[in-house]
Structures are given as C-alpha cells and as structure tokens.
Amino acid sequence: MNKIYIIANWKMNPLTLAEAKRNFEIIKKGIRNIKNVKAVICSPFVFLGALRPSEVLSVGGQDCFWQDKGAFTGEVSPRQLKNLGVEYVILGHSERRRYLAETDEMILKKTEAALSVGIKPIVCVEKSSQLKGFSKNIIVAYEPVFAIGTGKPCTVEKAKSVRKKIKQQSVLYGGSVNSSNAYGYIREAGFQGLLVGSASLDPNEFVRIVREVDFSSKT
Ligand code: PGA
Q1: DSSP for residue 44
Q2: Whose CA is nearest to atom 1 of ligand 1?
Q3: Cβ neighbours, 10 Å, residue 151
C-alpha cells in the first residue's frame, strides 16, 4: 500500500531557527512509530539545512527556480535543494501566484527542473485545467482559495468531484485541514494525502493529524 502524504506548509513561519528546530523535533518524536503516513515539513529555505529528517519525516522547500545555477539573484535552485537532502518542493502555491505573479508556464518550468534532479514537486492548483502539460509523476495539491487559511474547508463532496478530474495518481487536499476533518478527505473523497498550513504551525496539532490518519487508515 502506498503511504498517505501529510505535508506541512509552514509558509513564512516561524521567526527563529530555535523555534523551527524545536517544532520539528516535537513532530519527529510524536510520529516516530507511524506506519502508513509519509510526513513532510516544507519549511522556509533558511531553516532547511538545520532540520534533521527521519525515516518517516522528510523536509521540503516551498519554491525553487528553473535553472541549476547562475545569475538569478535571490533564487534557490532544485539542485541546491537536492544537495541539501531535500526531497520535496511545493510549487505554484496560490499565495505565490497572487503575490509574486507566478504563472502556469513558470510553474511548469519549475516542476520540470525539480523532476530532473529527483525532487518530488507538489504542484498546487485550484482547477484540474491548470495541470495541462504537467507530468503524471508529480504530486498535485487541490487547494481551493476560499478554503486556504479561512477555517472554512471545502466540502468533501466538492473536493471529491475535483479529485475525479485530476489524472495524476497522488493528489492531496489542502485548505483549513485540522485533526477533526483530516481523514474524511482520504476516506470519503479519495485523496492520497493532505497539505496542511495553519494547523501545522502547532506541532502538537500536526502530530494529531498525522497520528489520526495513520491510525484510521489501518483498517
Ligand atoms: P491552511 O493552508 O491549512 O491554513 O488553509 C493550506 C495551504 O495554504 O497550503
């Protein structure tokens, strides 16, 4: 059986390296005996090199550029991430599309660059049509903007109808996920995992989400 992905998107949090390490260690300890879940912490770049992954807890970035190296001030390449031991990268998050004007074309280039060095891209979309031209080997995250950070999650029925239109095998749901609603998206809507923002900033709540999904998926 494929493992269920539970991916934390820490966004631009926390403020210090000490807090990032502390939260990461709480999560690592809290989920050390899980069997059915692959957990990933997508942290700001500045903390990535200092987080120590385990067998069940990996690290990921929240963006990358489409070239390996060169004169691209401020950018971070997938090859640099790979060389740091990073296994995953979130691409095309709606906040980057909105505040940084990222387009589907840019996200496609970033996705191909990540795949070419063996990093698994987690491509965020609101509609299945945004996946035109994308490889089948990516992880997709369906994240309706109205549900992101609002405490108003998408209904399981609506999420299920979008899930059905996406051809990739691994599709995550994201948007106001917490430990009470997490498993419904997997059991009832057929998602292969979850992308968790706000609730992942409380390490104990993130542990609850992972443990709940791990436990429920046993049966
Ligand atoms: P949220 O964020 O869980 O706070 O809604 C999800 C995301 O933006 O990936």
Answers
A1: -
A2: 197
A3: 9
Q: What is the CB < 6 Å shell around ligand 1?
A: 9, 143, 148-149, 174-177, 195-199
Q: How many CB atoms lie within 10 A of CB 104?
A: 17
- Whose Cα sits closest to atom 2 in ligand 1? 197
User: Closest ligand 1 atom to the C-alpha of 195?
Assistant: 9
Closest residue to atom 9 of ligand 1, CA basis: 197
- The pTM score is 0.97
Distances (CA, A) of 46 to 18, 165, 182, 210: 12, 36, 29, 25
- pLDDT in 10s for each residue of the chain, 219 residues: 789 999 999 999 999 999 999 999 999 999 999 999 999 999 999 999 999 999 999 999 999 999 999 999 999 999 999 999 999 999 999 999 999 999 999 999 999 999 999 999 999 999 999 999 999 999 999 999 999 999 999 999 999 999 999 999 999 999 999 999 999 999 999 999 999 999 999 999 999 999 999 999 876
- The DSSP output letter for 140 is E
